[in-house]
Amino acid sequence: MNMPNASGIRLSIIVAVYSETSSLVETVERMLRNDRGYIHEIIIVAFPRSSKECFDVCEGLIRKYDKVKLHIQQKTPGIGWAFREGMKMAGGTHVAIMSGDLETEPEAIDRMVRKIEETDCDVVIGNRWLKGGGFHNYDRLKLVLNWIFQLIFKTLFLTRIGDLTYGFKILKKDVIDSINWEGTQHEICIETTLKPMRRGYRIEQVPTVWIGRIEGESKNPLLRNFRYVGMAFRILFSGAKA
Ligand SMILES: Nc1nc2c(ncn2[C@@H]2O[C@H](COP(=O)(O)OP(=O)(O)O)[C@@H](O)[C@H]2O)c(=O)[nH]1
Ligand SMILES: [Mg+2]
Q1: How far apart are the first and last CA of the chain?
Q2: 159 lines ligand 1 (CB under 6 A)
Q3: In angstroms, rounded to a whole number, what is the distance separating the alpha carbons of residues 112 and 205?
Q4: Which residues pair with 39 in a beta bridge?
Q5: Is residue 61 part of a domain?
Q6: Closest atom of ligand 1 to CA, residue 100
Q7: Is residue 6 part of a domain?
Q8: What mean pLDDT comes out for the span 163-187?
Q9: Of the ligands numbered here, which is closest to the C-alpha atom of 44?
């Protein structure tokens, strides 16, 4: 089905994948089910050394759904490269970034699109700390660190926007093209919120629930959080040029 969307939104969805199988299928199918004509394409960006089962699943999805495409990540390692390659390929007016492990709630994409339809904002982020959002099966220590981090950086950046570290959002393609992206690993998740914010783009947020993966494991060790901190300070001190 290829009905155009009344609001003119054509959404390219970038799904980062590192060996996921059933979670990826569910992610893709739950978004297609909710599509009101805005999905232009779903680009799976797969880590090249993902499992054979993962590639079999990707092949199955591209055979079954016209809108699904597969890109094998060229530069490694890191999800930053994956998102950046996907963002370059995107042909839509807007670009979503998300995970293939079902931790990023597929239904939140529709809520984000509605927020863009209502406000024509430049960026809409998923926020797990808003009423209606939340964390299930999240590491306790990570949750405490996350809360402290949000408090410190919301204060430093003087913003009402929360969940600054979360890599689940939609950006206008023009916003993406106007920014010099530098993150190669998970720090891309904070960069994609803080740099548009620093540039004065209009950001909105919607609540979303994070549910810990049941398949595979995270590629984001706790120590990598220092890369988030490094990126946040670099952006803070580089001002609007970021
Ligand atoms: N293409 C690609 N995907 C990745 C890479 N690292 C992680 N991912 C995927 O990106 C999503 C988010 O990463 P994850 O390791 O779960 O990080 P966490 O959710 O922060 O713990 C998951 O679906 C991963 O499988 C990478 O280097 N390349
Ligand atoms: Mg994850």
Answers
A1: 40
A2: no
A3: 8
A4: 11
A5: yes
A6: 23
A7: no
A8: 98
A9: 1
Distance CA 195, CA 241 (A): 9
Domain count of the fold of the chain: 1
Per-residue pLDDT of 41-77, as tens digits, reads 999 999 999 999 999 999 999 999 999 999 999 999 9
Q: Which structural domain, as residue segments, surrounds residue 118?
A: 11-241
Those residues whose C-beta lies under 8 Å from the C-beta of residue 85, and which sit 6 or more positions away, are 45, 71, 73, 74, 75
- Say if 3 falls within a structural domain: no
Please check the confidence at residue 166 and state whether its pLDDT lies above 70. Answer: yes
Ligand 1 atom closest to residue 23's alpha carbon, by position in its atom list: 23
Q: How distant is the alpha carbon of residue 183 from its chain centre?
A: 13
Give the pair of three-digit tokens for residue 139: 């590491």
In the chain, the percentage of residues whose pLDDT exceeds 70 is: 97
CB of 45 sitting under 6 A from ligand 1: yes
What are residue 72's DSSP bridge partners? 46
- Ligand 2 center–CA 135 separation, angstroms: 12
Q: 31 lies in a domain?
A: yes
For ligand 1, whether the C-beta of 168 sits within 6 Å is no
Reading the block at residue 87, the tokens are 């963002």
